[in-house]
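Batch manifest, entry 17 of 40.
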Amino acid sequence: DLMSYALKILLIAWLGSLSHINYASSEDIFCFVGDAGEVNQTQTLVVNALAQSDCSVVWHLGDISQLGVESIEDPELQESFLKPFKPFLDKKIPLYLIMGNHDYKGDPSVYLDVAKNYTSIFHPSNFYTKRFGELCFFALDTTIFDKLYYLHKRGKQIRWIKDELKRLKNKCKFSIAVAHHPLFSSGDRDRANPQLAIFLENYVFGIFDIYITGHNHVLADEGDHKKTRQLISATGALPGGSPKKTESNKFNVEVPGFLKMTVKGNSAEYKFISAETKELLWSGIKTGSGLRVD
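Output type: structure tokens
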């Protein structure tokens, strides 16, 4: 009858609205690597370690190519990313991309086309959200706030993040922002420039449970700022920049490797792994609050 038909239509629409959500199991392992755009032995070491790992999902935190790529036919795309990452890409592990400042040396929109050609590569926009049940990721483009000549690009992302925070504020038990640039570091690069810092202070710190970045070529746990923990995983090709002496409650090393994380409900357990020895370098636990927005 008419009522049954209407209920079927509503059910189809509801199922369609859920199609962009992956429901993560407690066994899912999220991994993070950054700054892997230089072709060298370290890149090979890290890529092979990821390919042989138990990662369910990998986030690339930017600087996919050290020189930038100008088009889908640009040889640099093959040489610095697709060929070196082939052992990993052949495994069909989902790879989510973030743009870094070196990617802006070329045309970052090329990666929109790359994602269309590779079913395991996910990159719908330079900023986007991805939900795994009640675990919410916000992928951000921080280069446009780091460089003054991208001032005209900022408004669109700010409007978007305000809308997404409002839309998802009651749907996330745990929240993670992923981007290229950290706010601060105990290593060589001590702090983001003022215009980037303003964005991160207003829209990331104090809102998300964890902020994970690349850019500073280290593996680091920098602790909490406004109850948001900052982690850095950026030794994919060019490790360097750790302090001579690390503060007792912080971790900051220039060892090739990556970050692994599991999230159960509102609790995340994370580990920094050496690509060469597969040994655990550092671990931590973060209890979250979802999205802290009014």
